[in-house]
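Exercise 3.2. Students should predict the tertiary structure of the chain below and write it as structure tokens, then compare their answer with the key that follows.

Predict this chain's 3D structure.
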Amino acid sequence: MRCPFRVNQEGGVRVSKNILVVYKKNFEDVHDEALDIVKNTLENINEELDIKVNYSAREKVSREDFIGRDLVVVLGGDGTLTSIAHSVDEKTPVMGVNSHPREMDNDGSYGFYMGSDPINFGKDIRKALSNDAIVNILPRLQAEISTTSGNVIRSDPALNDLLLANTHQYQPSKYKLQRKEDSKNSEINCIQYSSGCLFSTFLGQGAWYRHINNIEGTTFPENEIDNHYLFVSRDLPRNDRRDDGTYWAWTDQPTIFTSDMHRGYVVADGWDETHFTRGATISVSLNGPSLKLLTFRNTIYDRVSYWIKTN
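Answer key:
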């Protein structure tokens, strides 16, 4: 899908840039207006920067649409980005454009992962295409499921969080929990009954994790934020909420589950579900493909500096 080489007026050769724009479509004027700005901007710089652009609504985009792209532009909010990011490989840069910024409207989106907005899009897209943007390499969680028949299935990678639970939320999640010793937690091997387990990347803890586990005021070493993740057993009985990594943990070791549920699932970033049955073994770790996210005025980590303990 990559565009061919093209010859400029001086006879030199330059490579065309192949861009995919994925946009939020919910028939609200503010999103349509933002899309018009993006389209007009890209049309105006087409010959200047030699680009080819395709557009797709979030609801219609497929994995094949992302293959061979030089840049993916996501127009919407964090939900739009996390809903399609699992289809993007670790080499393709992603540029988030907040179509409804809170700075312009109190009812707008905070857009944590969105490095640009309609006002700054013109200058930001030029930086992205000239390799002058800030490149943030973000780790992602992933679950590997080994079925009783010997098949191995990988969940979608999760930029924010990953849930492992009984598909019937009114029934308890039953499982064996195992994890090797790390620098902060002892080795664990126990049976648990909970409402399921939630995992979060360092950056994703503000999305859901802190609503489940009270870790306000906790900071994390700067040299661990790219190789550690957060874990918590939801609604674990109070008597079982020990401080040994079985209730919650900040760890770099894979967490291993053996399911004792008739049917369970892994849900990545609140979107696609990967199901498993009793006897399946599920390993959760930061082994997912990383995401190459572009920002323009500060790094992603600058936005959560209050969570980081500098060395």
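Discussion points: The longest strand covers residues 281-295. The radius of gyration is 21 Å.
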